[in-house]
Specification:
The complex is a heterodimer. Chain A is mostly helical. Chain A has twelve helices and two strands. The chains are: A mainly alpha, B alpha/beta. The structure holds adenosine-5'-diphosphate (ADP) and magnesium ion.
Chain lengths: ~280, ~325
């Protein structure tokens, strides 16, 4: 397994695409920090309205939370969908997959290695966003403690967050956001075994997420929404806006694990059985 | 009898309603160079894919070294295969492609037969260029290099000379010759009879997914071949040859006779004629091998359509 992880990682790491994405994930948070700063009205106690974005002007330690909050909704989904959907299908599309299987690399092992590599890249991207935002935020806004006024917390009394508490919650939030792509990883890997066209698998994966987000916004759909892969993705935000560790985060983790179990198993079973036509 | 290297038994592969392979059976023994011959769409690639564990048989079995092939089965490590075109990771160099392919199972590229491989690839500095920039011929040579890394005992090659120029084709033929002298067994598919004729010791001919014929190249060509004979007394020759069990048909042509054989060798004819005291002026294949191949493929149809020119072998008529 270790050699296979290494060779698959080299293959992924040597793609120009990977570097373009990495560059984008440095530039974009930097631009957001710049935009935040240019509003110019930062300083304690002057924020109005709600959301992490207003708060973020108080302290660089909150900037990563704000940046993750907007980027995990769409851009990171697209990037994660790309890594996951591409995992098997790109090799199949190049025609290289059959040669790997004739080496012979066991199919189940290859699939898992490819999923782990895709997952590692997704985590790396999330971390990169958080770190860039943290560095940029710290430079521009400093690393102060934060006072959250009651208006933001939706009726919750105002509270104070120390730098150390902020850092800890930031780490937790980043991990939660990255882990939130687990369902997408499993789904994308599964789609990737179904086709030799990487673009198709990527499109299907991102499509499922977009549909999930749209339907999730329609409350009439009822409780089924709680099972959608996107439903709990923002469950971490109250850590900063309401000073609590939401239990929804635990439910969110459980939902992700359920998707991993179902689609991960489906992907392995299907990939081990399928006729390789590419 | 030693265990066959390849043993395909009653193999079927269906795609929905279509059968790409129907009840195909053949063996390849140690040291043979076996050509899987058939026109496009005959089911050659499908057969080789099943043999390499890429596709599952609908029915029947494919065995390598006496072991029934499953996807990723361990015996595959003894096989070097190229199924359809050679293909690589385009954004990596030829060298890195070789390295990653080899090291996917662990170990280090220096344990592989890299010298032989690079000699075959003969890519010079291009080996360090991205594969994306290679021509099909270069990829094909790199494909040969890759399959030789593991010092395979069996080579499975699907139309290996596709996309190569005449010089490269000759190199590949020499390579196959060298590897078989060193003890390798080869199964290669082709739709060019002239190609297998020069390379193979044995043939498996298939058409529409079915086995048409199999045996040594000499047997197959002899068994359907027609022979052109010129002798000093044509009528007597006709009588003598009609009596031979291996003669199916004969008819007059030019100054001589065209004899259709269903088995036996050309030499049987010359022996019979000379024993009868006839002077043999010419004996030569009346057909090119290419025609023999087409004839094999069209075999069943031909039996159904009575032909005009050939005279049926019939003792009374021949008198
Ligand atoms: N994946 C597939 N789905 C449907 N039909 C297929 C598939 N693969 C091959 N075939 C059909 O099976 C037959 C044999 O194909 P193939 O094995 O590629 O022949 P060959 O290699 O001898 O040219 C062809 O008629 C082809 O159309
Ligand atoms: Mg073919």
């Amino acid at each position: 397994m270790i050699p296979l992880l290494r060779t698959e990682m080299i293959k992924a790491a040597r793609r120009t695409r990977t570097y373009v994405i990495a560059l984008g994930l440095i530039v974009l948070p930097a631009v957001i920090v710049f935009a935040l700063n240019s509003r110019g009205d930062h300083g304690p106690g002057r924020e109005r309205g709600d959301g992490l974005f207003r708060l973020a002007q108080q302290s660089g330690l909150l900037v990563p939370a704000a940046v993750l909050s907007i980027m995990s909704g769409f851009l990171l989904v697209v990037i994660a969908g790309m890594f996951a959907g591409d995992s098997v299908a790109s090799d199949a599309g190049w025609g290289n997959l059959r040669y790997l299987l004739m080496r012979p690399v066991p199919r189940g092992r290859l699939l898992i290695a490819k999923a782990i590599v895709a997952g590692t890249l997704i985590w790396a991207c999330t971390l990169l966003v958080a770190l860039t935002a943290l560095v940029g935020g710290a430079i521009v806004f400093g690393t102060n403690a934060v006072t959250v006024p009651s208006a933001i917390g939706g009726g919750v009394a105002g509270f104070h967050l120390d730098a150390s508490v902020l850092l800890l919650r930031l780490a937790l939030a980043t991990g939660y956001v990255a882990f939130g792509f687990t369902a997408l990883l499993a789904l994308g890997t599964f789609f990737s075994t179904l086709t030799d066209t990487a673009a198709g698998a990527i499109g299907a994966t991102i499509g499922v997420y977009i549909v999930s987000e749209i339907l999730d916004g329609i409350s009439q759909i009822g409780r089924i929404r709680y099972g959608f892969p996107t439903h709990y993705l923002s469950a971490w935000e109250p850590m900063f806006t309401e000073n609590r560790l939401p239990t929804d985060m635990l439910v969110g983790v459980a939902v992700q694990i359920a998707y991993l179990a179902v689609f991960g198993t489906a992907a392995v079973i299907w990939f081990r059985r399928k006729d390789l036509r590419s | 009898m030693p265990m066959p290297i390849v043993n395909v038994t009653g193999l079927w592969k269906n795609f929905g309603e279509v059968s790409a392979v129907e009840d195909l059976s053949f063996v390849v023994e140690q040291g043979q160079v076996c050509g899987l011959l058939g026109p496009n769409g005959a089911g050659k690639s499908t057969t080789l894919r099943v043999l390499m564990g890429l596709e599952r048989p609908s029915r029947g079995t494919a065995e390598l070294f006496g072991v029934s092939v499953q996807p990723g089965c361990g015996e595959l490590i003894r096989v070097g295969a190229m199924v359809e075109q050679a293909a690589f990771v385009p954004h990596l160099s030829g060298m890195l492609n070789l390295r990653l392919w080899w090291e996917a199972l662990g170990g280090h590229l220096r344990d592989a037969d890299l010298d032989t491989a690079l000699g075959i690839a003969d890519l010079g500095d291009a080996i360090n260029r991205k594969v994306r920039t290679y021509s099909q011929g270069m990829k094909q040579r790199l494909g040969f290099a890759r399959l030789l890394l593991a010092r395979p005992e069996l080579l499975v090659l699907d139309e290996p000379t596709n996309g190569l120029d005449p010089g490269e084709i000759r190199d590949i033929r020499e390579l196959i010759g060298r590897l078989t002298r060193e003890g390798a067994t080869v199964l290669l598919s082709s739709h060019h009879l002239s190609e297998v004729e020069q390379t193979c010791s044995h043939l498996v001919v298939m058409n529409h997914g079915k086995l048409v014929s199999s045996g040594t190249v000499a047997q197959l060509v002899g068994s359907t071949g027609s022979v052109y004979v010129e002798v000093d007394d044509r009528e007597r020759a006709r009588t003598v040859l009609s009596a031979l069990p291996s003669v199916r048909n004969l008819h007059l042509q030019g100054d001589g006779l065209v004899v259709d054989l269903h088995d036996g060798r050309r030499s049987d004819l010359s022996v019979a004629l000379m024993t009868a005291g006839l002077r043999l002026e010419t004996i030569a294949p009346a057909q090119r091998l290419e025609d023999a191949f087409l004839e094999l493929l069209e075999g069943p149809a031909r039996d159904l359509t009575p032909s005009e020119t050939p005279v049926a072998v019939d003792a009374t008529e021949a008198q």
